């Protein structure tokens, strides 16, 4: 049986963070296709028009212009066709309110962006372990 | 009269909101570029490969160390600004257990000797346990980290009177020079250069703010033969100041 690789949608407005994820993918030898949206509005559009094909997983920042991560999650969970997608929050926000809001919207994980790139590589490897299970 | 009270309350709410926004901006918006500096440094280092002048590598290490320091300072500022908002739960605390936990969380080696004594009628009390833990941990941590002798003795003595607990933490380390003792509770102040001891200089500031917030007192006195004594007067009944 051929494994179907999960497609990853990264919703992130910071260019360095996008490059960080790309580098961490390459360091971890991750072959999944990576799509990038700069905010929640763009992300919803990419999901609804199937620019990001199924199966898909979302890595989501919280603080973004136009539509932030929490607003995006509300829209996602209200949408019958999108509500089952696994979402991992990856943010610098250590605010309890952001964590509670995110978990109330059924996120699969809440990851604080570490300062060092080495630790970030490890975080991405952990994520990869999770979505590999979805690919079985 | 009523209107002026209302206007004061509105002004207070606006100021509180402004303060909260400021804290949030510090926590998120400054951290993002700071992380970017750290990350890009690692990328450049990585891209340069293995054949690099050691001076350059040393400068990279310095750069990363200083960004790390900046992150710690920023986290300390955030912690300081949120003392009255986080971990405020009152629950039953057993003093020996709490001190034991603090000691267990410390990073220390075999040459550190702890002597703990309790003079209590009741070893349990209801208090803001996490805050008390933080204060005791910070002072013990300083006692261990800044100790200058081969064998490091640290003493903890917990007693009580009618209204408060008196927690005395002393050591036989270098002590603090008389002319510096008023500065040690200031944010980011370190007795030694931050290059000598990798310290943020926020532990005592955070501890004293916590103690002040619960209505207690913390003071430093020099030990009889050098060394330091920190005395915490922690009220039995917590009155939280807003």
TrEMBL record, chain A:
SUPFAM superfamilies assigned: CheY-like
PROSITE patterns assigned to the protein according to its UniProt record, in alphabetical order: RESPONSE_REGULATORY
Pfam families (alphabetical): Response_reg
Listed SMART domains: REC
Keyword Cell cycle: no
4-aspartylphosphate: modified positions: 61
Gene3D superfamilies (UniProt xref): 3.40.50.2300
Alphabetical keyword list: Phosphoprotein
InterPro entries assigned to the protein according to its UniProt record, in alphabetical order: CheY-like_superfamily, Sig_transdc_resp-reg_receiver, TCS_response_regulator
Residues covered by the Response regulatory domain: 7-128
Protein name: Response regulator
Native organism: Flavobacterium petrolei
Taxonomic placement: Bacteria, Pseudomonadati, Bacteroidota, Flavobacteriia, Flavobacteriales
TrEMBL record, chain B:
Enzyme Commission number(s): 2.7.13.3
Single Gene Ontology MF annotation: ATP binding
Catalytic activity: ATP + protein L-histidine = ADP + protein N-phospho-L-histidine
Tree of life domain: Bacteria
Sorted UniProt keywords: ATP-binding, Kinase, Nucleotide-binding, Phosphoprotein, Transferase, Two-component regulatory system
Domain Histidine kinase: 25-238
Signal peptide start and end residues: none
KW Kinase (keyword) present: yes
An example Gene Ontology biological process: osmosensory signaling via phosphorelay pathway
Name of the protein described by the UniProt record: histidine kinase
């Amino acid at each position: 049986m051929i494994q179907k690789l999960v497609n990853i949608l990264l919703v992130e407005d910071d260019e360095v963070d996008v490059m960080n994820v790309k580098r961490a993918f390459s360091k971890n030898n991750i072959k999944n296709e990576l799509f990038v949206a700069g905010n929640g509005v763009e992300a919803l559009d990419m999901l609804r028009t199937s620019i990001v094909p199924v199966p898909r997983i979302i890595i989501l920042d919280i603080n973004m212009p136009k539509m932030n991560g929490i607003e995006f999650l509300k829209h996602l969970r209200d949408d019958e066709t999108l509500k089952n997608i696994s979402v991992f929050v990856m943010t610098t926000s250590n605010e309890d309110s952001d964590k509670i809001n995110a978990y109330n919207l059924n996120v699969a994980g809440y990851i604080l962006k570490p300062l060092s790139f080495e630790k970030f590589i490890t975080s991405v490897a952990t994520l990869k372990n999770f979505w590999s299970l979805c690919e079985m | 009269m009523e209107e002026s009270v209302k206007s004061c309350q509105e002004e207070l709410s606006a100021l509180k909101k402004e303060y909260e926004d400021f804290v949030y901006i510090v926590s998120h918006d400054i951290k993002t570029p700071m992380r970017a500096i750290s990350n890009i440094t690692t990328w450049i280092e990585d891209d340069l490969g293995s054949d690099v002048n050691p001076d350059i590598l040393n400068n990279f290490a310095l750069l990363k160390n200083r960004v790390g320091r900046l992150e710690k300072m920023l986290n300390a500022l955030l912690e300081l600004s949120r003392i009255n908002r986080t971990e405020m739960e009152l629950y039953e605390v057993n003093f020996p257990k709490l001190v034991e936990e603090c000691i267990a969380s410390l990073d220390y080696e075999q040459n550190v000797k702890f002597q703990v004594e309790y003079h209590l009628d009741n070893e349990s009390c209801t208090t803001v346990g996490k805050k008390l833990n933080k204060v005791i941990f910070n002072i013990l941590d300083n006692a261990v980290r800044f100790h200058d002798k081969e064998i490091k003795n640290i003493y903890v003595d917990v007693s009580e009177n009618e209204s408060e607990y008196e927690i005395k933490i002393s050591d036989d380390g270098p002590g603090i020079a008389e002319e510096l003792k008023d500065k040690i509770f200031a944010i980011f102040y370190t007795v030694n250069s931050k290059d000598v001891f990798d310290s943020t200089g926020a532990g005592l500031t955070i501890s004293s703010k916590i103690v002040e917030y619960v209505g207690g007192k913390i003071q430093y006195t020099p030990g009889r033969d050098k060394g330091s004594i920190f005395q915490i007067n922690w009220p039995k009944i917590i009155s939280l100041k807003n």
